[in-house]
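Human: We require from you a protein record containing the residue sequence and its fold in token form, and nothing else.

Assistant:
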Amino acid sequence: MLKLHHLNILTTFAMLIMAFLVGCKDSSTPNPATPVLSDLSSLDPTAADYIREKHQAVLATLDDAILRADLAMAFHAHAMFDSAATSYQEALKLDESQTRWWYLLARAQKSLDQDEAALASIEQAIQRNADYPALRVRQGFWQLDLGRFEKAALAFEAALAIEPHHPIGKIGLARVRLSQDQTDEAISMLADLRRDVPRDPYIAYLLGTAYRQVGRMEEAQPLLEIGTGSQLSWRGQDPWSGDMQKLERGLKVEYQRALDYIALKRHDLGIEILNELHQRYPDELPVLTSLGGACIATKHYEEASEALQKALVLDEEHFVVHLQLASLELNQQNFDSALHHVETAIRLNSSLAHLQDLKGQILFESNNYQEAETAFLLAIKMAPDNVQSHLRLVVAYNKLGKVHPCIELLKTMIQRFPNVPDSYLMLAQIYHRMGQAVGAQEVIKVAELRFPDHEPLQRLKRSMGME
């Protein structure tokens, strides 16, 4: 009996110890706060519903770090930076090992002008993953914004040590060198970068700025004309941020995302988004016309026709619908129908040079060269800087046998648009056909200075025995 009583005391004592240990464990576990939902009335209804859905998921399971991070990214994608920062912090209380969340918290804090907090958070991210170059590059730009050039340079150099060809890391380091008046080094870096990424206007702008700083205005001016007003593009260089931004919802942003994909020649992704938008917004005319245009570009003519016929039902007097239908019929060589639609588009909007240019293309393809010439001349009058209209007029002149106007136009183009290799090539070809070998050779020599690797020019040169 005494032994049994002693056993009961030991059992009770063990239970008390277990309760104490559990209590200690509970006290060390973060107490998750209930997320507050801000006013969503200014958002697109689709975006608002998306955020409410993420909010409800968190309310159902307050201690789930991933759900809290999902809510944070939903806030972040819709520029609700205060709510995003709070939600990232709550997620990190539950799981502080997540590098990406520290990084996105830093970006939200930077958007709130909390510079030091942003730098502290990005340092936390770097400590957890030192191999993601965008962390160091962002850190470098934020230090540069604060005038801390040495720290900025160290960050950019660290990024380039991870990925030596990272273009934005190189841009950042070049900007530091410009800020430190180390212009020659900046010029060398930017010139190399421009050769690697020749179509980036922001790189052109920085290189032009560097040339201007050292008084090389002749080289600076064309680059500044190309790049003035451009901004640094992170496209493809920061997948973590890109994935977050893809969460943004609403007709406007998703439509723009589709157009961006199309501009990048990713028509498949653009068409996928446009089809989804059409299902949600069946009466949105721009969605249908853009879908039709993307399908034309990918030669999915049946799908293009279906989209554009729906657009025509919505508004038979909208010039864009007839413009796209004209393009569709031209691609299918239905020239009479194409001409009808482009003339209808011109009647509805006579101010667009592109419509006259398209009319010229349709007339040219139907062998009506004289009227094509008239259309191209009008297109050039309306948009004097449209190089393609000039080149099409050259071809029309060739078909009409108007050699002298063709030569004069090409000479004018070379003066006005010196960076268009086709102008030199076509002028050299005309001189060659006319038996004016010296004239052709002079044109090719000038062209080679600008386009040393232009293969069509090299072929013409070889055919003329200029090697």
